Amino acid sequence: MSAPSILVNSLSENLMLASKTRHSEMSDNSDSPEVEHSDVECFEALPDDTVEVIGSTESAIRKIIRENKETTDVVKYIRFTNVPLAIADKFSLRNTRQMFNRSTRYMIIKLLTGAHETASRGLGGAVQNEIYNMGLDESIRPLGSKTIQGVFCRKEADAAYGPTQPVPGRNPKWPAVVVEVGVSESYRKLRADAEWWLTNSRGDVKLIIIVSISRKTPNIKFETVALDPTVNSLRLQRPRYVPKIRQTITASRDAKHHQASSTFDHWV
After folding, report:
1. Where are the beta strands (DSSP E) in the chain?
2. Domain presence at residue 64
3. Do the domain assignments include residue 59?
4. Structural domain contains residue 183
5. Into how many domains does the chain fold?
6. Quick one: pLDDT at residue 26?
7. DSSP state letters, 189-229
8. Is residue 90 part of a domain?
9. Residue numbers in the chain where pLDDT is lower than 50
10. CATH number at residue 163
11. What distances in angstroms separate CA 125 from CA 41, 122, 133, one per listed residue?
């Protein structure tokens, strides 16, 4: 059984949970410190090779993207500053993912390559197959690289899944499961992205699947991240949004003998 197939065993549980959970179970804490921290962390947890430039015009933004696409391995991040709202709101480009903070006018562009798309499609195919095998194909639908406006930032996922029918009391704009793909050097950024989805949705996003591709060795690490149910069951004055790694699986390949293997590093 492949690593993606093992991962989706917990996927159905979270998707079914999303179809039953009402938004009122978690109060609206738009100004919660967890939300503010996740916004800041997403823009600070960038890898060392991130390009940082001023993006005051659309032509300047597109020029920088063209120049960096030629040197992109799996993924590459560009952080633009001083981006006008009018440009950020309409900007769109293939083979990229975007995140924009309207308050700071910072925009992150993630450049994608074939390796990124291969990992995304492979996981997506396994998820779709498992959804069909579980008889959930009429209840769950893929949402693609969905873009969502959070409390302060707008963010685009690599892939997302959600209930087919609206759930009373649940904000329909949020997917139930989100996939984020990157390289091992950008792992801190991937964790920050996971935290952003969980905290900004106030629990409507149930599960994040992180796919971390190693540039140095032929292996891919899969992680599932969810809110810690122990913390949120304490019924404090306000709910706390504390992400927790539930599952870690490393899939590797012996370059000499072309043999694949999977290692369970963590399971909660």
Report:
1. 51-54, 75-81, 96-101, 106-112, 140-142, 147-149, 153-156, 159-163, 177-183, 207-213, 219-227, 243-254, 259-267
2. no
3. no
4. yes
5. 1
6. 45
7. HHHHHHHHHHHHTTTSS-EEEEEEE-SSSSEEEEEEEEE-H
8. no
9. 1, 23-27, 29
10. 3.90.1570
11. 31, 5, 12
